[in-house]
Write a structure and sequence with these properties.
Order of helices and strands: HH
Strand content: under 5%
Largest sheet: none
Shape: rod-shaped
Helix content: over 70%
Distance between the termini: 83 Å
Structural class: mainly alpha
Radius of gyration: 25 Å
Number of domains: 1
Number of strands: 0
Number of helices: 2
Length: about 60
Amino acid sequence: MSNTARMVMKIIGASLALAAFVCLLIGGWHDLSVGCCGMKKRLSRRFGSEYEDYADDELYE
């Protein structure tokens, strides 16, 4: 196999690997965002103030 053919095969292999990585990132982006939002909700519930469950706006209407 000539050097040109080897170089072309390496370029094709690298581009396919990059495309697979991009597809994996796009496919897993939703799962990452859902996990992040769920973690923020869980932490705010655990470390939130004890008075956050009262509706103060409704008391002063």
